């Protein structure tokens, strides 16, 4: 299990999705990759907001992308001096909203190598626990859920990202009520067809029946992955 810093990103309303993606990938990405202690940096560009394969209440989240950074210092991920200021100025230029979560990441089904990941489909989902359930109860049940996911056909990779810290605005820690996200799921499939087939299978139906015992929302996004560093 390792900790990862994730950005939950929405573009400015007056930016087209094409301009947003180009700027994030070609300008902001190279800027961030200069961060000291950075060992990995991925951008996940949202391409689809359909639930696809699941019959579940969708939450209010309308993100345009997810960033994932492994850094040596989670408190000062971009070091000190000029670089953090340049990164913040650029974020203010093209982002309408940026939430930050620190997650504890667990690979349940080992993620494919980069060369394969570039050719297959990825889905990310934001999840929220049932309101009567404590955080510890949720985490315990999510571990049980992992065993059900392992039985599903066609799953090429599956990671659970349990949220341990939240910033509604970057640099401003907040409580659960202000940013009620418990986890972020990463799924890899060969295609959207194999995703649909996985959730229509007997194992998939059983897995989602279990999800309804401990989750109140699943907000799913298909994403295009880009490794920056």
Describe the structure.
With 229 residues, this protein is α+β, with helices and mostly antiparallel strands. The chain has a single domain, classed as Alpha-Beta Plaits (2-Layer Sandwich). It has 6 helices and 9 strands, in the order E-H-E-E-H-E-H-E-H-E-E-E-H-H-E. The protein has an 8-stranded antiparallel barrel with strand order 1-3-2-9-5-8-6-4, surrounded by 4 helices. Strand 6 and strand 7 form a beta hairpin. Helix 1 runs antiparallel to helix 2 and helix 5 packs across helix 6. The longest helix has 16 residues. The radius of gyration is 17 Å and the shape is globular. The two termini are 20 Å apart. The relative contact order is 0.24.
